[in-house]
Amino acid sequence: MILNDNGREYDTDKVDTYSAYTQRLIVRLIYLRYVAIRDLLSPNCCSKLHLKDVKQAVKEEKNIQRIKNVFGYSVDEINFYIDYADQNIPMVR
Questions:
Q1: How many CA within 13 A on the CB side of residue 28?
Q2: Residue 65 contacts by C-beta under 8 Å, 6 or more apart in sequence?
Q3: Is the pLDDT score of 45 beyond 80?
Q4: How far apart (Å, rounded) are the C-alpha atoms in residues 38 and 67?
Q5: d(Cα 58, Cα 53) in Å, to the nearest integer?
Q6: What is the pLDDT of residue 93?
Q7: Residues 68-85: what's their mean pLDDT?
Q8: Whole-model pTM?
Q9: Cβ-defined contacts of 9-17 (< 8 Å, 24+)
Q10: How far apart are CA 82 and CA 4, in angstroms?
Q11: What residues does 10 pair with on adjacent strands?
Q12: How far is it, in rounded angstroms, from Cα 36 to Cα 33?
């Protein structure tokens, strides 16, 4: 998947070819986008949803539409951010 960050594009299939700094930057970018999705879906801003609750909420069409309207992410992007965070970012689990 191609990530676009203010005009910079990163290919997640080629992460291993990037420098360590760029790799950390990509992981941080994905984490921040996951957190933005999680916070949008949370009914209470002070309490953070658990990963399983985020995955459950994303299955509802109204939540998908809300994320699309606010952030402009496609369904593939939304699922990618959640799955990547689950698999590669320990503090999300």
A1: 7
A2: none
A3: no
A4: 10
A5: 9
A6: 81
A7: 96
A8: 0.92
A9: 12/80, 12/84
A10: 17
A11: 3
A12: 5
In terms of phi and psi (left: phi > 0; alpha: psi -120 to 50; beta: otherwise), the region of 76 is alpha
What is the C-alpha separation between 1 and 4, in angstroms, rounded? 10
How far, in Å, are 40, 42, 90, 91, 93 from residue 2 at the CA level?
23, 27, 23, 24, 24
* pLDDT of residue 2 exceeding 80: yes
- Amino acid 87: pLDDT: 95
Residue spans of alpha helices (H) in the chain: 20-41, 51-58, 61-71, 75-88
Q: Which of 27-31, 45-49, 67-71, 72-76 has the lowest mean pLDDT?
A: 45-49
Cα separations in angstroms, 36 against 13, 39, 48, 78, 80? 23, 5, 11, 11, 14
Average pLDDT over residues 46-69: 94
Q: What is the model's pLDDT at position 46?
A: 84
